[in-house]
Every structure is written in C-alpha cells, then in structure tokens.
Amino acid sequence: MFENSEVREIRGRGLEAKARVRVASREMLLALKANSMRDQDMRDILALCFQEPSSVDAVAHLEKCPREKIGENLERLDVYLSTLDPRSFQGTFGTSEMVLKRSIVNCRKLLVELRRGLTLSYTKSLSELRGVFQKREKSVREGIRELAREHRKEARG
Question: Is 118 in contact with 67 (CB distance < 8 Å)?
C-alpha cells in the first residue's frame, strides 16, 4: 500500500481545516473497491472515474485477485451504470450532470480495459445493446433493478 500512495494535503470545510496525510492512489482505491463491490463502492468507483484512471495500474492491482469474483463484480458495476439514477448519485456527491456524464464515460472505458487486461469474458452493456430492447427497455431496466434489490436483500442476510 505504501508504494501505491502519496502524501497529499487534504482540506476540510474551513480555511484552516487541512492536514497532510498519506492517500492511496486512485488505481489502488479502484482495485480495492472492485474487489468488494458493495453498493457504496460502485458509487465511489464512479466518482473516482471523474479523472480518467490508468487502466494499466488498475489491472496490475487486480491481477492478484480471484478472476471469477472480479468478473462478477465488474458485471455488477456494469448493471449499476446502466440503471443508475442520476439524482441519487448527484445527491450523494453534489455533482453536476456534466461531471456525472464524464464519470460514466470514463468508468465504462475503464470497465472495457479491465476486462481486456484481465482477459475476462465480455458481455455488452445495456447502453451498447440500445435498440435491441427499444420496445421493452423500461421492462428490462425494471427487471435489472428488481434483481439488484433481491441481491442486496440476500447479501444482508
């Protein structure tokens, strides 16, 4: 972790509220969050993708993780991006629509590059299949949301 971090100045709300702390690199944080992929991790990954991350570094961190689990987690992230409620994300992070769109584009690009770099099988996202579900898109999205709710219930026990 030490070699994948740097000392940075973190600022709080007030002018005097600041501290110098060691912070993990963006790619290390992405890899850690991709490994657990909780709901809040998916939101954090999207926020971390505002600036385009280095997929090479992220792949290097993820190569040590179980491929099957990472593949499943990347699929979950793909579904999250396809069914994202923009108001929910913007409310959590206080971002503009432009920032959200940029983050989504960078996150989708990262997903493709992670799958390629980790040699994971690739399934097309809903946005790539747009038109195939044109007449039933609303039903498909609701089905995905329902599956995600069921998954969260099962995870809670």
Answer: yes
